[in-house]
Amino acid sequence: MKAVLLNGFGGREMLAIGEVPRPSPGENQLLVKVMATSVNRPDIIQRQGHYPPPKGESDILGLEVAGTIEQIGPGVSGWKVGDRIMGLVAGGGYAEYALAYAAHLIPIPDSMSFEQAACICETYITAFLNIFMIGGFQDGESALLHGGGGGVNTAAIQLCQTLTPNAKIVVTASAQKIERVKELGAHLVINYQEQDFAEEIKGYTAGQGVNLILDHVGAKYLAPNMAALAVEGRLVVIGVIGGAKAELNLALMMVKRQRIIGSVLRSRPVAQKGKITAEFANTVVPKLADGTIAPLISATFALDEVAEAHEMMEASKHFGKIVLRVGS
Ligand SMILES: NC(=O)c1ccc[n+]([C@@H]2O[C@H](COP(=O)([O-])OP(=O)(O)OC[C@H]3O[C@@H](n4cnc5c(N)ncnc54)[C@H](OP(=O)(O)O)[C@@H]3O)[C@@H](O)[C@H]2O)c1
Asked: Strand 210-215's sheet: what is its strand order?
């Protein structure tokens, strides 16, 4: 089968289209004929050599797929060849065929195309898991979402608007994306390149701080995040693009009864990811099916154009998702 291969770790020049054997489904797995996948920031980090796949998983890039079921492995029931599905994979999405655990797949609503479906699982499940299942975000609370133009955070804004319509959503964004983040429905957008977000939040919340922060910046934002967090607030860390080590005032955190939670989706045990997928399918997929939530596709590339797709993300020219069209 055709797949995107790496000639080594590094820049976009390491990406190459090649041929590899088609995998066979093991226990509880299915073989998916991939029609579309999408680019996620962790793919870039993996290409650079800083995010290896979990043990035993494909080392081909790609964390999600949309396509049809090609072959059913032992122990799987409830699916048939030809079903239209979208799902999480721990690797292998940038290829004509990919293995997926049955529990990590969701039927694609009739109203959605493969390209739209390829934008759902990694980003919307990450946002749903960390804001609602882990962060316990409630209607009427306030949240700070960093990097509002990205895949995870545009999904996060949409989910908060839909599931917690009375919540207050504060978003940080770069200058060129502020207007579009406002149009998406954020109540306050802070230019992270020019403004001090902790100070802005202090003003906006009359000194109270926000109840939840979804952060992928890490060390660089730990101090301002803690300053922007309310009493009993939750800071959920899902990335460390701004460094992994920082100093923390534990006394203040204790007195304010705050929580800092680290979270990663990819390497969770199969059964746990299955439960998360099922809860997402029950709660969010009906909103995708009826069009309440529509994924934001910034651009679509053919698989052969993968380097251009990565370039777009690395230059942060996208708003929402970048799709790779694979099958036809
Ligand atoms: N833990 C998990 O399970 C998990 C799963 C998926 C993704 N992630 C992480 O989540 C993050 C987002 O992934 P993605 O696929 O959505 O990537 P993406 O589409 O590239 O989005 C990243 C966003 O971060 C913004 N950003 C960059 N520097 C920033 C800063 N200093 N302050 C605030 N925002 C900043 C960018 O904004 P501008 O473009 O406006 O500069 C961009 O919109 C990545 O770090 C990824 O590794 C974690």
From this structure: 188-191, 168-173, 142-146, 210-215, 229-237, 259-262
